[in-house]
Write a structure and sequence with these properties.
Layout lengths: L8 H22 L5 E8 L4 E7 L2 H5 L4 H14 L4 E7 L7 H13 L4 H14 L4 E8 L7 E8 L6 H6 E10 L2 E10 L13 H28 L8
Parallel strand pairs: 2-3
Antiparallel strand pairs: 1-2, 4-5, 4-7, 6-7
Length: 238
């Protein structure tokens, strides 16, 4: 799946995007036990630097680097990388990643835990980590013949506009149970300093406006007094 440099620029951009998407999909399954979050690919003239963000970097590296060497060989064979260099970075707050939360819920349900208990546990841990909002949807058969969907929501959830692109993390996980396939969808609002729908009142601006209004009133009073002094008692100007 190597990208040919002889192709036109638009075809090369499409192939590079396709390879990055395929790489992310492959690593999310290959490094499922490591708590995969995201991958960043930087290609230089000497090597391809692949930074993998996971919950447990030790699983990616392995003892004496054996697992990372095996992964390097797989990436060379499958994606056509000539000289890949793998870096494993730890996700400091795992429950601020929609991918990790979805995998957490799916794995707990696979172990036989109740989906509601697991969903509320994930919501509490996400909010305590600093998330502004989280929505979890679990769809499938919950012990009955008919499939249904249940939603669990807390905080603020953005669904449209630039806020979704900038502040919302989204992930989907599927698990196979004896009664059928169950899907887990997570929408997480990342920690942000200023909420786009929050009105902030600046006290210094209010004080500045009040001072201007006060100065205007004083100016009007002075002009009124001057006018009354210049006009006589019968309304004739002195």
């Amino acid at each position: 799946m190597s990208v040919s440099k002889n192709l036109p620029i638009y075809k090369r951009i499409i192939q590079e995007g396709w390879r990055k998407a395929a790489l992310k999909e492959f690593l999310s399954k290959y490094l499922e036990r490591a708590g995969f979050h995201d991958v960043k690919l930087v290609e230089t003239s000497l090597r391809e630097i692949i930074t993998i963000y996971v919950e447990r970097p030790g699983i990616v590296i392995g003892k004496s680097g054996k697992l990372s060497k095996r992964l390097t060989d797989v990436l060379k064979e499958r994606f056509g990388f000539e000289n890949p260099y793998i870096r494993a970075e730890k996700v400091e707050e795992p429950f601020l990643s929609a991918k990790i939360i979805a995998h957490f819920i799916a794995s707990r349900i696979m172990r036989g835990e109740k989906h509601r208990r697991v969903a509320f546990m994930a919501i509490n841990r996400a909010l305590s980590s600093g998330a502004k909002g989280i929505e979890i949807k679990i769809a499938g058969k919950f012990g009955s013949q008919r499939a249904r969907e249940e939603r669990f929501r807390a905080g603020v959830i953005y669904r449209c506009g630039e806020d979704v692109m900038s502040h919302v993390d989204y992930a989907v996980e599927h698990i196979l149970l004896p009664q059928g396939v169950m899907g887990v969808r997570v929408r997480l609002v990342k920690p942000i300093t200023s909420m786009p729908d929050r009105v902030l009142i600046k006290e210094e601006k209010i004080s500045e406006i009040l001072e201007k209004i006060k100065a205007e009133k004083m100016k009007e009073e002075v002009e009124k007094v001057d006018h009354e002094e210049n006009v006589g008692p019968e309304g004739n100007e002195q």
